[in-house]
Amino acid sequence: MLNFTAIDFETANSYRGSPCAVGLVRVRDGKPVDERRWLIRPPEPVDYFDGFNTMLHGIDSAMVEDAPRWRHVLPAILDYIDDDVVVAHNAGFDIGVIRYACAVDNIEWPEMRFLCTMVMARRALSLPSYRLPYVVESLGAQMGHHHDPLADAHGVVAVVNALAGRSGVGVLADLAASQRMSIGRMSRGIYTGSVAIGSGGRNFTPIEVNTDADPSGYLYGRVVVFTGTLMSMTRDVARQECARVGATPDQNTTKRTNVLVVGDINPAVLRPGSNVTGKGP
């Protein structure tokens, strides 16, 4: 069964942990059966609105003045999700909102399983853009106003249903497997992203740079190095994507390096007095 909860956050400013609204859609057997939309007052240290963000989603400080704080909304979100897998378009961002907002409020990360439709779309479709409205339209579906969190959550549902139909599967785990990607997991300081499955670690797939790539592309001819945990794909897959557009991926930074891509970190390591190391085992 295609049972899951779709989620989308909007943020007040450029800091990822500044949620100001959330949209959730509960799906059973591929059909939306319930929905929620809550305004949220961001955690106190990041409770301010950037004009750019307000321009995107139309939410400002006055609209959330009487809304509950993040620490009070989080339990309601978790109760609504229950045991569902959470599905988001760019789960690295939306699950990151939870992680970073919890870090600001000194709350442990909740346990959660999640799947990313942006990664899935990259695996299944060849498109010039993988922004949610473009993916929805390319699959012959429709969605409401982009950056309304509830409309975006419904857009996620449309993507899941369309890709499941194309793959001939009716279970969310089977859909992930059909696109060779993982279901991510988060719990008390542990995070594993929903990413394309490749050869992990340093056992990288041999690189063959595409000499026929578009020379006007930004990465064409550049040397790119990745470090840290990537949110939407493994480092091996990222290296292959760079080679496809004419870049040369390298394992270590040198004088030749043009682009350094820094992956995500556990924000707990940034707390004063933290005894959590940013290094993996």
Automatic annotation (TrEMBL):
It holds the Pfam family RNase_T. One of its GO terms (molecular function) is nucleic acid binding. InterPro entries: BRCT_dom_sf, Ribonucl_H, RNaseH-like_sf, RNaseH_sf. GO terms for cellular component: cytosol. Residues 3-169 form the Exonuclease domain. It comes from the Bacteria. Its EC number is 2.7.7.7. It is an enzyme of class 2 (transferase). SUPFAM superfamilies: BRCT domain, Ribonuclease H-like. Keywords: Exonuclease, Hydrolase, Nuclease, Nucleotidyltransferase, Transferase. This is DNA polymerase III epsilon subunit.
